[in-house]
Amino acid sequence: MKKSTRALVGMLVIDLLILAGTAWFVMYIRNGASLTVPPAEAIGTVTTIGGGAIGIVTGILLVAFFVHRKRGN
C-alpha cells in the first residue's frame, strides 16, 4: 500500500473514531447519564470540540497525502 493511500485510510479511520466518540458522548449527555450544567450547552461544546478535532486531523493528513503523492509514494 502506498504511503499516500495509507494517509487517506488513516484519515478516514481516525475521523470515524472521533465521530463515534462524539456521538457516544452526546448520547450519554442526552440520556441524562451525565449530570452536567445545561445539557444543550454541554452538547454544543462536545460537538464543537469533535468537529474541530476532525478538521485538524483531516487537514494534517490531507497535507501528508499530497506531499506523499507529489514525491511518488
Describe the protein.
With 73 residues, the chain is an all-alpha fold. It is built from two helices and no strands. The chain has helices at residues 3-30, 39-71. Helix 1 (3-30) packs antiparallel against helix 2. The protein is elongated. The termini are close together. The mean pLDDT is 90.
Termini gap: 9 Å
Q: Count the helices. How many?
A: 2
- Overall mean pLDDT stands at 90
Radius of gyration: 16 Å
Structure described in brief:
Helix content is 84%, strand content 0%. With 73 residues, it is mostly helical.
Task: Provide keyphrases for this structure.
mainly alpha, 2 helices, 73 residues
Secondary-structure blueprint:
Layout: H1 3-30, H2 39-71
Helix pairs in contact: 1-2
